[in-house]
Amino acid sequence: MKTIDEVLVRMDQIVAECKNDQSRIGYFAILYRQVTRRIRDGILAREFEDNPRMEKLDVLFAGRFINAYNTWKIAQAPTNSWMLAFEASKDSKHLVLQHLFLGINAHINLDLGISAADTMGSEPIAGIQNDFNKINAVLAELVDGVKSNISMVSPIFGWLIPLAKGRDEMLLNFSIQLARDGAWKYAGEYYGCEDRNASILERDRNISKLANKLINPGKFLSFMVKIVGFAEWKSVSRTMDQLDVVVKKAQKD
After folding, report:
1. Residue-wise pLDDT tens digits, 36-50
2. CA-CA distance, 248 to 253, in Å (whole number)?
3. Which of 59, 66, 157, 220 pairs with 76 at a CA distance of 20 to 30 A?
4. Which domain of life is it from (predicted)?
Protein backbone atom coordinates (compact mmCIF):
# COMPACT_ATOMS: atom_id res chain seq x y z
CA MET A 1 0.00 0.00 0.00
CA LYS A 2 1.27 3.42 -0.98
CA THR A 3 -1.68 5.71 -0.32
CA ILE A 4 -4.08 6.36 2.53
CA ASP A 5 -6.99 5.53 0.22
CA GLU A 6 -5.53 2.06 -0.32
CA VAL A 7 -5.25 1.71 3.47
CA LEU A 8 -8.92 2.60 3.87
CA VAL A 9 -9.95 0.01 1.28
CA ARG A 10 -8.11 -2.67 3.25
CA MET A 11 -9.53 -1.39 6.54
CA ASP A 12 -13.05 -1.69 5.10
CA GLN A 13 -12.25 -5.26 4.11
CA ILE A 14 -10.95 -6.10 7.60
CA VAL A 15 -14.05 -4.63 9.25
CA ALA A 16 -16.26 -6.68 6.90
CA GLU A 17 -14.21 -9.85 7.58
CA CYS A 18 -14.45 -9.34 11.34
CA LYS A 19 -18.19 -8.78 11.16
CA ASN A 20 -18.66 -11.90 9.05
CA ASP A 21 -16.41 -13.97 11.34
CA GLN A 22 -17.83 -12.45 14.56
CA SER A 23 -14.25 -11.49 15.43
CA ARG A 24 -13.70 -9.00 18.25
CA ILE A 25 -10.65 -7.65 16.43
CA GLY A 26 -13.35 -5.70 14.61
CA TYR A 27 -13.73 -3.40 17.64
CA PHE A 28 -10.24 -1.98 17.21
CA ALA A 29 -10.59 -2.05 13.42
CA ILE A 30 -13.73 0.13 13.64
CA LEU A 31 -11.94 2.67 15.84
CA TYR A 32 -8.75 2.69 13.79
CA ARG A 33 -10.60 3.02 10.49
CA GLN A 34 -12.17 6.22 11.82
CA VAL A 35 -8.74 7.50 12.92
CA THR A 36 -7.46 6.86 9.40
CA ARG A 37 -10.44 8.64 7.84
CA ARG A 38 -9.83 11.62 10.10
CA ILE A 39 -6.15 11.77 9.14
CA ARG A 40 -7.04 11.52 5.44
CA ASP A 41 -9.46 14.42 5.83
CA GLY A 42 -6.78 16.39 7.65
CA ILE A 43 -4.30 15.77 4.86
CA LEU A 44 -6.83 16.95 2.27
CA ALA A 45 -7.42 20.08 4.39
CA ARG A 46 -3.64 20.55 4.73
CA GLU A 47 -3.78 20.51 8.53
CA PHE A 48 -0.34 19.01 9.08
CA GLU A 49 3.13 20.50 8.91
CA ASP A 50 4.06 18.20 6.03
CA ASN A 51 0.99 16.59 4.48
CA PRO A 52 2.76 14.22 2.01
CA ARG A 53 4.98 13.05 4.87
CA MET A 54 1.91 12.51 7.05
CA GLU A 55 0.44 10.26 4.38
CA LYS A 56 3.67 8.27 4.32
CA LEU A 57 3.60 7.97 8.11
CA ASP A 58 -0.04 6.91 8.11
CA VAL A 59 0.56 4.24 5.44
CA LEU A 60 3.54 2.82 7.34
CA PHE A 61 1.69 3.00 10.64
CA ALA A 62 -1.50 1.37 9.37
CA GLY A 63 0.60 -1.18 7.50
CA ARG A 64 1.98 -2.53 10.76
CA PHE A 65 -1.52 -3.33 12.05
CA ILE A 66 -2.65 -4.72 8.69
CA ASN A 67 0.48 -6.87 8.33
CA ALA A 68 0.09 -8.16 11.90
CA TYR A 69 -3.56 -9.02 11.21
CA ASN A 70 -2.73 -10.73 7.90
CA THR A 71 0.07 -12.72 9.57
CA TRP A 72 -2.22 -13.90 12.37
CA LYS A 73 -4.97 -14.85 9.92
CA ILE A 74 -2.65 -17.35 8.24
CA ALA A 75 -1.74 -18.86 11.63
CA GLN A 76 1.69 -17.28 11.83
CA ALA A 77 3.04 -15.14 14.67
CA PRO A 78 3.09 -11.33 14.53
CA THR A 79 4.75 -9.32 17.32
CA ASN A 80 3.79 -10.70 20.70
CA SER A 81 1.91 -7.57 21.75
CA TRP A 82 -0.34 -7.98 18.70
CA MET A 83 -0.54 -11.74 19.23
CA LEU A 84 -1.91 -11.18 22.74
CA ALA A 85 -4.53 -8.77 21.39
CA PHE A 86 -5.56 -11.14 18.61
CA GLU A 87 -5.74 -14.21 20.82
CA ALA A 88 -7.72 -12.31 23.47
CA SER A 89 -10.27 -11.52 20.77
CA LYS A 90 -11.34 -15.17 20.81
CA ASP A 91 -12.56 -14.85 24.41
CA SER A 92 -15.99 -13.43 25.14
CA LYS A 93 -15.12 -12.68 28.78
CA HIS A 94 -13.18 -9.50 27.94
CA LEU A 95 -14.93 -6.14 27.73
CA VAL A 96 -15.17 -4.09 24.55
CA LEU A 97 -12.86 -1.51 26.14
CA GLN A 98 -10.29 -4.21 26.92
CA HIS A 99 -10.20 -5.20 23.25
CA LEU A 100 -9.86 -1.57 22.18
CA PHE A 101 -7.03 -0.90 24.63
CA LEU A 102 -5.17 -4.07 23.65
CA GLY A 103 -5.13 -2.88 20.05
CA ILE A 104 -4.13 0.65 21.03
CA ASN A 105 -1.42 -0.71 23.30
CA ALA A 106 0.25 -2.65 20.49
CA HIS A 107 -0.28 0.03 17.88
CA ILE A 108 0.77 3.13 19.82
CA ASN A 109 3.32 1.71 22.24
CA LEU A 110 5.13 -0.41 19.65
CA ASP A 111 4.12 0.43 16.08
CA LEU A 112 3.97 4.23 16.15
CA GLY A 113 7.56 4.88 17.21
CA ILE A 114 8.86 2.46 14.58
CA SER A 115 6.70 4.05 11.88
CA ALA A 116 7.79 7.58 12.79
CA ALA A 117 11.47 6.67 12.62
CA ASP A 118 11.03 4.77 9.35
CA THR A 119 9.15 7.72 7.86
CA MET A 120 12.02 10.10 8.58
CA GLY A 121 14.75 7.83 7.17
CA SER A 122 17.99 9.78 7.59
CA GLU A 123 16.25 13.09 8.34
CA PRO A 124 16.28 14.26 12.00
CA ILE A 125 13.55 12.49 13.96
CA ALA A 126 12.62 15.73 15.78
CA GLY A 127 11.17 17.07 12.53
CA ILE A 128 8.10 14.85 12.77
CA GLN A 129 7.23 15.35 16.44
CA ASN A 130 4.38 17.83 15.92
CA ASP A 131 2.64 15.67 13.33
CA PHE A 132 3.33 12.61 15.50
CA ASN A 133 1.47 14.34 18.32
CA LYS A 134 -1.44 15.18 16.01
CA ILE A 135 -2.00 11.50 15.19
CA ASN A 136 -2.20 10.81 18.92
CA ALA A 137 -4.54 13.76 19.43
CA VAL A 138 -6.93 12.29 16.85
CA LEU A 139 -6.82 8.90 18.56
CA ALA A 140 -7.23 10.40 22.04
CA GLU A 141 -10.23 12.42 20.87
CA LEU A 142 -11.95 9.33 19.53
CA VAL A 143 -11.09 7.17 22.54
CA ASP A 144 -12.41 9.84 24.93
CA GLY A 145 -15.59 9.98 22.87
CA VAL A 146 -15.96 6.22 23.02
CA LYS A 147 -15.43 6.18 26.79
CA SER A 148 -17.99 8.98 27.22
CA ASN A 149 -20.56 7.03 25.21
CA ILE A 150 -19.52 3.51 26.21
CA SER A 151 -23.00 2.91 27.67
CA MET A 152 -24.19 2.26 24.11
CA VAL A 153 -22.19 -0.98 24.05
CA SER A 154 -21.53 -1.54 27.77
CA PRO A 155 -24.53 -0.28 29.76
CA ILE A 156 -23.01 -0.49 33.26
CA PHE A 157 -19.29 0.10 32.57
CA GLY A 158 -19.52 3.44 34.37
CA TRP A 159 -20.01 1.56 37.63
CA LEU A 160 -16.42 0.37 37.50
CA ILE A 161 -14.83 3.80 37.74
CA PRO A 162 -16.00 4.95 41.21
CA LEU A 163 -15.79 1.42 42.64
CA ALA A 164 -12.15 1.02 41.59
CA LYS A 165 -11.06 4.56 42.47
CA GLY A 166 -7.50 4.70 43.77
CA ARG A 167 -6.63 1.22 42.60
CA ASP A 168 -3.60 0.69 40.39
CA GLU A 169 -5.49 -0.85 37.49
CA MET A 170 -4.13 -0.67 33.96
CA LEU A 171 -7.61 -1.04 32.46
CA LEU A 172 -8.96 2.09 34.14
CA ASN A 173 -5.76 4.13 34.11
CA PHE A 174 -4.78 3.52 30.48
CA SER A 175 -3.66 6.89 29.11
CA ILE A 176 -3.21 7.81 25.47
CA GLN A 177 -1.01 10.72 26.55
CA LEU A 178 1.33 8.45 28.52
CA ALA A 179 1.38 5.99 25.63
CA ARG A 180 2.20 8.84 23.24
CA ASP A 181 5.06 10.08 25.42
CA GLY A 182 6.49 6.59 25.70
CA ALA A 183 6.08 6.01 21.97
CA TRP A 184 7.94 9.23 21.15
CA LYS A 185 10.77 8.31 23.50
CA TYR A 186 10.97 4.90 21.83
CA ALA A 187 10.93 6.49 18.36
CA GLY A 188 14.16 8.27 19.28
CA GLU A 189 15.72 5.11 20.69
CA TYR A 190 14.75 3.04 17.65
CA TYR A 191 15.91 5.77 15.27
CA GLY A 192 19.37 5.88 16.83
CA CYS A 193 20.03 2.21 17.58
CA GLU A 194 22.34 -0.03 15.57
CA ASP A 195 20.32 -3.25 15.78
CA ARG A 196 16.71 -2.31 15.08
CA ASN A 197 15.42 -5.89 15.08
CA ALA A 198 16.80 -6.45 18.58
CA SER A 199 15.29 -3.13 19.66
CA ILE A 200 11.84 -4.16 18.42
CA LEU A 201 12.06 -7.50 20.23
CA GLU A 202 12.97 -5.82 23.51
CA ARG A 203 10.27 -3.17 23.16
CA ASP A 204 7.73 -5.83 22.23
CA ARG A 205 8.55 -7.78 25.40
CA ASN A 206 7.90 -4.70 27.52
CA ILE A 207 4.65 -3.78 25.75
CA SER A 208 3.47 -7.38 26.08
CA LYS A 209 3.69 -6.98 29.86
CA LEU A 210 1.24 -4.06 29.62
CA ALA A 211 -1.03 -6.19 27.44
CA ASN A 212 -1.09 -8.91 30.07
CA LYS A 213 -2.16 -6.34 32.67
CA LEU A 214 -5.04 -5.36 30.42
CA ILE A 215 -6.03 -8.99 29.89
CA ASN A 216 -5.60 -10.00 33.53
CA PRO A 217 -6.53 -7.12 35.85
CA GLY A 218 -6.39 -7.45 39.63
CA LYS A 219 -8.79 -9.77 41.48
CA PHE A 220 -11.24 -7.02 42.42
CA LEU A 221 -11.49 -5.62 38.90
CA SER A 222 -11.65 -9.10 37.37
CA PHE A 223 -14.76 -9.74 39.44
CA MET A 224 -16.28 -6.42 38.37
CA VAL A 225 -15.42 -7.09 34.73
CA LYS A 226 -17.49 -10.28 34.86
CA ILE A 227 -20.50 -8.34 36.12
CA VAL A 228 -20.11 -5.58 33.54
CA GLY A 229 -19.55 -8.17 30.81
CA PHE A 230 -22.95 -9.74 31.42
CA ALA A 231 -24.60 -6.46 30.39
CA GLU A 232 -22.63 -5.99 27.16
CA TRP A 233 -24.11 -6.95 23.81
CA LYS A 234 -23.14 -10.51 22.99
CA SER A 235 -23.43 -10.20 19.21
CA VAL A 236 -20.04 -9.08 17.90
CA SER A 237 -21.51 -7.70 14.67
CA ARG A 238 -24.16 -5.75 16.58
CA THR A 239 -21.52 -4.36 18.94
CA MET A 240 -19.42 -3.33 15.93
CA ASP A 241 -22.39 -1.48 14.45
CA GLN A 242 -23.00 0.33 17.76
CA LEU A 243 -19.29 1.13 18.10
CA ASP A 244 -19.22 2.55 14.59
CA VAL A 245 -22.01 4.95 15.59
CA VAL A 246 -20.08 5.92 18.73
CA VAL A 247 -16.78 6.67 16.98
CA LYS A 248 -18.47 8.70 14.26
CA LYS A 249 -20.33 10.67 16.91
CA ALA A 250 -17.06 11.22 18.81
CA GLN A 251 -15.45 12.73 15.73
CA LYS A 252 -18.39 15.09 15.08
CA ASP A 253 -18.50 16.20 18.72
Report:
1. 999 999 999 999 999
2. 9
3. 59
4. Bacteria
